[in-house]
Amino acid sequence: MAFDKTWTEASPAGTDNLASGDDEIRETRYALRERLAIEHKFYASEVGETNVGRHFQVGMVVSAADPGVDATLGFMYLKTIGGVLELFYEDSAGNVLQMTSAGSLVGTTAFRTGDFILCETTDARAGWTDMSATYEDKFIRLSSGTPLDTGGANTHTHAAGTFASANHTHSGTTSTNTGTKYDGDAGNSSITHSHTFVTSSAGAATITGTSASANNIPAYVQMVLWRKD
User: Residue ranges per domain, the chain?
Assistant: First the structure.
């Protein structure tokens, strides 16, 4: 990064005019502010300003190797891993911990490619794909089968099946009845009788059919499904 003022410890020289001392002091302050203001709140005038000197970012250059062990210090630094600068920490005993990898904290990666989440918002998420349309009207089923296989249906019907009766007959006897006959001069007398019967053999009867379509869907809440890219 280029600065307005060039930093040099060779200035002022011992032979410089004493009267230019105030200019040198102002230039030194300017040069310091230019450099400190890259990552700190620094101003040409602090009047009315707050949090002067505080960090608003921390930029580190890559370290060629792990720092040396110091029993009184811990070190935070960057190393190149797979062409990417990753964050490392070395403690006072010389133990080195890689803290980041591929944009996530090591050991605490929240999501991996192929992970799904349910959400109430339809706002586009960086690094995620909305899969709601792909699995429209699908419920989640836990299974040891192939992930993302689908099945089932929103409606169903019931078939009545087929029922056939065996050929058969019915037999019976009517109830007895008392009648009257006339037998010449002998006068009237009564007679009791009954009638028997047998039905004809019946053919096989069948029952077939299908019920109307019924809805399978229970009460539900609608959500958006996101998949990690």
Answer: 1-59
One-letter amino acid identity for 138?
Answer: K
Q: Strand, coil or helix: what is 147? A: coil
Kindly give, in sequence order, each residue whose CB lies less than 8 Å from that of residue 158, ignoring residues fewer than 6 positions away.
210, 211, 214
Provide the residue count of the chain: 229
Residue with tokens 């811990």: 74
Tell me the pLDDT tens digit for each residue of 63-118.
Answer: 999 999 999 999 999 999 999 999 999 999 999 999 998 888 887 666 778 999 99
Q: Report d(CA 177, CA 191) in Å as an integer.
A: 8
207-219 pLDDT per residue, tens: 777 888 888 888 8
How is 34-76 classified by DSSP, letter by letter?
HHHTTTB---S--TT--STT-BS----PBPSSPPPP-TT--EE
C-alpha 53, offset from chain centre: 43
Token match 């039905």: residue?
199
Nearest Cα to Cα of residue 1 among 26, 37, 28: 37
Residue 104 is encoded by which pair of tokens? 């996530």
Dmax over CA atoms of the chain, in Å, equals 182
Q: What is the pLDDT of residues 148-194, one digit of tens each?
A: 998 888 888 888 766 666 677 778 887 776 666 656 555 555 667 77
Q: Are 163 and 207 in contact (CB under 8 A)?
A: yes
CA-angle at 48, arms to 45 and 49, nearest 5°: 70
Three-state secondary structure call for residue 19: helix
